[in-house]
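Moderator note: this is an archived Q&A kept for reference. The question asked for a predicted structure of one protein chain; the sequence and the answer are reproduced below.
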Amino acid sequence: QLQLVETGGGLVQAGGSLRLSCSCSGRGFSTHTMGWFRQAPGKEREFVAAIKWSSSVTYYGDSARGRFTISRDNAKNTVFLQMNSLKPEDTAIYYCAASHILGMPTRESNYDYWGQGTQVTVSS
């Protein structure tokens, strides 16, 4: 079983920055892709960004492109999401997830393991 633990959420003013971390531990299938999703109150879970463990190839959702950066530290089995120029509409619970898919998965159903989420609140 693969365990994912997100940290780094909090309260920040609009225009500020936060860095989320996702620590991976335990045993599981071959994890090819790590992703970040978010879910705001009353809304569906939304794809934010993904990264391949082996190549560092990244992909971003429309809301994240140009402001957020996903990265990973293979030695520490940790994935990061650097969020800059935050807006109130970025307020959500942010989830880390792991996928066995070789391509670049962006759907929630593509991911097999999930963390418990970390709250990000951006005040105006």
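Archived answer notes: The CA atoms of residues 43 and 92 lie 9 Å apart.
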